[in-house]
Design brief:
The chain is mostly helical. The longest helix has 25 residues. The chain contains 7 helices and no strands. It folds into 2 domains: about 35 residues; about 100 residues, Cytochrome Bc1 Complex, Chain D, domain 2 (Orthogonal Bundle).
Length: about 180
C-alpha cells in the first residue's frame, strides 16, 4: 500500500481540502457572474444612468459649458453652412449610440476629442459637468451627489431613459443639441 493507505495516493489534509473548496467556490462565483454579464444583462449591482448619478448643480454648470463650447457643432441650427454637424448629444440618436456603454467611455471621448478643432481643453471636472448636462437633457434624473472622476463613476452604464416631460427638450424642437 502507498502513503496514507489508499493504494499509492496521499490523502489531502483537511486544511488543503478547505483551500481547494474555497478556491473552487470563488472560481464558481466569478464564472457565474461573468456568464450572466455576457448574457446581455446588467449585473444587479451595476449602477446605471437611471440611478440619480449626477447633481443638479453639476448639470447646470455643464449646461453653461455646453452652450459656450459644444452647441456650435452639435446643434444643427448653429452649425455654419457647409459644415457637417457633430453627432447628436441629446435625443434618441444619442441614446442609440451610447446605450449599454459606460460614462467612462463617453467621458473619454469628450475629454480626448472635443472640441474637434482643439480650440479649448476642458478639465476632467468640466467634462463631467458636460456629461451631467447631457444626461439631464436626455431625461435622466439628478440626485444629491455630483459625479466624481473615479472608477465607480466611469463604470456607470448608459441605459435607455425616459424623456423628461414638460422640459421643452426633445428632438425636433429648437434648442441645445
Amino acid at each position: 500500500m502507498g502513503v496514507g493507505g489508499r493504494g499509492g495516493r496521499a490523502s489531502a489534509s483537511p486544511r488543503a481540502r478547505l483551500r481547494f473548496v474555497a478556491a473552487l467556490a470563488v472560481f464558481g462565483v466569478a464564472f457565474v457572474t461573468r456568464a450572466l454579464a455576457g448574457a446581455g444583462g446588467v449585473a444587479p449591482a451595476q449602477q446605471t444612468t437611471r440611478d440619480k448619478v449626477f447633481a443638479k448643480a453639476q448639470a447646470t454648470r455643464g449646461s453653461d459649458l455646453y452652450a459656450k463650447h459644444c452647441d456650435r457643432c452639435h446643434d444643427p441650427a448653429k452649425v455654419p453652412p457647409g459644415k457637417k454637424p457633430g453627432p447628436p448629444t441629446i435625443g434618441p440618436k444619442f441614446i442609440e449610440t451610447w446605450q449599454d456603454r459606460t460614462i467612462g467611455e463617453l467621458f473619454g471621448s469628450i475629454m480626448n476629442t472635443m472640441p474637434s478643432d482643439g480650440s479649448i481643453t476642458l478639465t476632467a471636472d468640466q467634462t463631467l459637468d458636460v456629461v451631467a448636462y447631457m444626461l439631464q437633457a436626455n431625461g435622466f434624473p439628478d440626485g444629491p451627489i455630483a459625479m466624481k472622476n473615479d472608477d465607480a463613476t466611469k463604470e456607470i452604464v448608459i441605459v435607455k431613459g425616459q424623456r423628461a416631460k414638460g422640459k421643452g427638450r426633445g428632438e425636433g424642437k429648437k434648442g441645445r443639441r
